Amino acid sequence: MKLIQASRMAALMLCLGGVAHAADLQTVEDPDSLGFSARRLARMTSWFEAQTKKGDPSGFVVAVARGGKLAYLQPIGLADHDKAIPMRTDSIFRIGSMSKQITSVATMMLVDEGKLDLDAPVAQYLPELRDKQVVKTDPATGDAILLELEPAKRAMTIRDLLRNTSGLVYPMADYADPGFGNTAIHLLYGARAPFRRDKPIASFVASLGALPLLHQPGEVWEYAIGYDVLGRVIEVVSGQTFDKFLQSRLFAPLRMVDTGFYVPEDKLARLVAVPGAQPAPLSDGDVTKPPTFFSGGGGIVSTAPDLLRFCQMLLNDGELDGARILKPETVRLMMTNSLPPDMHVAGHEAGPAFGTGWGLGFAIRTDPNFSLIPGAVGSFNWQGSWGTFFSVDPAQKLILLMMMQRPQYRHNAFYFDAIRRLPYAALKVPEVAAPLASQPSNAALLTDYVGRYDFGGSASSLDRQIFVADGNGWTGLKSVVVETDGLKVIKPVDGGPAARAGVLAGDLITAIDDASIRGQTLEAALRRIPGPVNAKIKLKIARETQSDPVVVAFAREAVPSHSVALRIRITDGKLVVEATGAWSVLDFDKGEPTPVAALSKDEFRVEGGDHTRIKFVRDAAGKVSGAVLNPGPWEQHGALFQ
Fold first, then answer.
1. CA-CA distances (angstroms) from residue 477 to 284, 429, 470, 473?
2. Which end of the chain, N or C, is surrounded by fewer C-beta atoms within 10 Å?
3. 231 φ, ψ to 5°?
4. What is the DSSP code (8-state) at residue 457?
């Protein structure tokens, strides 16, 4: 039996290896042949359909590919709610900031050809950005000092534009993402360099010439307009307008037939409507007419089939169907974190606090303790402000893609959580042959196992934080920044364990569990915060209103909004298991108690379905303290949380 199972897994890995071809992404394959449970993969359809039944006007297209083959492609809901037009697999979406990855690939194509120097000053190609001035900062607070400028210590480079360390910022306007900065400099950019579809890139870049940088180049990561500047760099270097370069050099070779900067008249019937009140016009707002400003940061429209081809090209190390787009070593460089550990991060979802670095145009999973990106370290992703998301896991040869269209920045994370978790939860776990033991006849013997078990923030062993193995303890510190003497609390989570224990915004944490964190990097200090659910943590705090240090101690808790939990009880003399947290897990669904049969003392198995095994863990005193799902290489650990 073990030999047969090993052979099946070897065959599956052979299937997942090698170079994928575009034809493999056109027809949905049998999910089981690609290592998925078809039943569990179907939960995605149910989940997204449930959102439309609850009245969400957004329709969806959801896709999953593995090993270059299509495991799932499903249109759900309506493309136009008001006109009752159904969603279709080739519906066209505004992809917002997922344009950045396309622009990054285009940039690196020219680097590969020797026409663009990655470390050359941007001014070498765009003289209007020469001799930039930088806003001075107060050395004591780090705050910008308005109206005081100093010369840049060095010129911004092409690499800086790709990794968001140029010192440029996003223009602030009334539609801006609250994750972006809102200083006077951001407002100045909004007034002097607004996005307009009728304004050429050259004119837009020229307007940046008179504006100061907010940060010294190379010193701060801040999500910025560098990709729009790169569009102009590509025009200058290639001699083509940015849209024509992308069409001839990238979209046509990859046969991305519906991707561009606007939707032609003969395809308008496939354009997904944005429900509700519309934001002020942006670079990617009205896509029904050809623009003059080709926004490399947010102006592209595309479809799920086109983006699957783009992602598969990257998984294939830069090639698809004989079209070589990038050198393999270039793809590896782009997908390697380029930010040093001490890089200051200004806002958004990158940096040690998110377990996420930044390559050359892509967010990279660097630390599974904190990362929101699923899969192996080295997985890469990004999202668009209109509600599109992709993630690529090179270790599993897995592409996840979700397309929807919503007014900008409206609660998209709720849906991103689903596409992050549900496909990983559908991956099959290799079965282990084991005979069933006789069910304990005395129900009292089963009472040891009754309770709620918390498995942290993930529904899969492949999509988990390290501390899930210890119960994924959560302290409720929403935002902190590193200072010389420790971690300054910007905001604790309202009602979270830290807030309830008395931690306040403005507190400076100087020690964790009696060990000083003075002088530590943000990453090193953050590693000290997680721990097992129910485990105590003690913080020593310096507070401006008190002369003596404040010491608070409290127990870590399970993450409430992302928790994966099982409720185990006895029904009709049998042990039954039901998912009670945010997500179903393996054979266990919400609202459907599933009986398990005994394999041995402390180990049980689902008799049907995917034969999920659950083994209970006891502490030194012999008391049940946790559970392990599918013991072995794919195991998931949970803590008993009464």
1. 35, 34, 19, 12
2. C
3. -55, -40
4. T
Give per-residue pLDDT as tens, 86-96: 999 999 999 99
CA atoms of 337 and 278, how far apart (whole Å): 36
CATH for 113-239 is 1.20.58.710
CB atoms under 10 Å from CB of 534, counted, come to 18
Angle of CA points 176, 179, 184, to nearest 5°: 65
Amino acid at 367: D
Q: Which tokens in the block code for residue 295?
A: 């926004």
Residues 205/227, Cβ–Cβ less than 8 Å: no
Given the candidates 2.30.42.10, 2.60.120.480, 2.40.110.10, 3.40.630.30, the CATH classification of the domain at 473-557 is 2.30.42.10
Nearest to 529, CA basis, from 370, 639, 376, 638: 370
How far is Cα 328 from Cα 249, in angstroms, rounded to an integer?
17
Whole-number Å distance between alpha carbons of 353 and 119: 28
- Whether the per-residue pLDDT at 523 is higher than 70: the answer is no
What pLDDT does 198 receive?
Answer: 80
230-259 pLDDT, tens digit per residue, is: 999 999 999 999 999 999 999 999 999 999
Q: Which of 6-10, 144-148, 435-439, 445-449 has the lowest mean pLDDT?
A: 6-10
Q: Which of 67-76, 236-245, 616-625 has the lowest mean pLDDT?
A: 616-625
Cβ-contact 95, 88 below 8 angstroms = no
Of 533, 523, 491, 526, the C-alpha closest to 512 is 526
- Helix spans in 320-440 (H): 328-334, 413-425
Query: Are the C-beta atoms of residues 619 and 611 closer than 8 Å to each other?
Result: no
- The residue with tokens 């299509």 is 70
Which among 81, 38, 39 has a CA at the least distance from the CA of 60? 81
- Per the rule left: phi > 0, alpha: psi between -120 and 50, beta: everything else, 147 is left
DSSP 8-state secondary structure symbol assigned to residue 318? S
Contact (Cβ atoms closer than 8 angstroms) between residue 66 and residue 398 = yes
Position of tokens 């003969």?
A: 266
Six-digit token pair at 86?
């159904």
Per DSSP, helices labelled H in 325-469 are 328-334, 413-425
Determine contact, residues 131/423, Cβ cutoff 8 Å: no
Give the mean model confidence (pLDDT) for residues 524-538. Answer: 81
Q: Is the pLDDT of residue 336 over 60?
A: yes
Cα angle vertex 69, ends 47, 377, to 5°?
Answer: 75
Angle at alpha carbon of residue 93, lines to 92 and 97, rounded to 5°: 145
In the chain, where the domains are located: 113-239, 443-468+561-640, 473-557
Q: Residues 6 or more apart from 317 whose CB is under 8 A from it?
A: 326, 328, 331, 332
Identify the pLDDT of residue 195.
77
Q: Which residue type is seen at 253?
A: P
Confidence of residue 4 (pLDDT cuts 50, 70, 90): very low
First to last CA, the chain: 38
